[in-house]
Amino acid sequence: MFYYSFTALTFAQGLKIYLNEAASNPLGVTESQQLYDAFQRAVDSNNNGTAMGNGYKVSELFGSWEQEGYPILHVERSYNNHRVRFTQVNQLQGKVGSEVE
Questions:
Q1: In this structure, what are the phi and psi dihedrals at residue 28, rounded to the nearest 5 degrees?
Q2: In the chain, which end has fewer C-beta atoms inside a 10 angstrom radius, N or C?
Q3: How far apart are alpha carbons 100 and 65 in whole angstroms?
Q4: Is 89 helix (H, G, I), strand (E, B) or coil?
């Protein structure tokens, strides 16, 4: 979803900024605001490199996920029967997705 909200260049730069900053943290721990800030710097450095128009605030898009919760995808692989099972759980509301094998 976010890839399509930004230009490809802006998305790649924002991700690179975020990952470089996360790697420089001795514990490798980050908070969501650091991700927002990294993408906002990429947007700003690319003259609003988004598909959303001028004055775009990354925190508004990302922040909406925190209010509603974000999906957590679990993947289980069975080597015995050569199957992969996916389940999706909403971070705040419990299980909302379906299982797919």
A1: 70, 25
A2: N
A3: 24
A4: strand
- Where is 38: in which H helix or E strand? helix 32-45
Where in the chain are the domains?
2-68, 70-101
What are the C-alpha distances in Å from 96 to residues 49, 73, 88, 89?
A: 33, 11, 7, 6
Residue 28 one-letter amino acid: G
Tell how strand 71-78 and strand 83-90 pair up. Answer: antiparallel
Output the CA angle 18-21-22, nearest 5 degrees.
85
Tokens of 58: 């990354």
Angle at 34 between CA 31 and CA 36, to 5 degrees: 115
Sheet (strand 94-95) strand order: 71-78, 83-90, 94-95
Structure letter (DSSP) for residue 25: S
Q: Could you read off the pLDDT of 23-76 as tens digits, one per residue?
A: 888 877 788 888 889 988 988 887 765 556 667 788 877 776 666 666 676 778
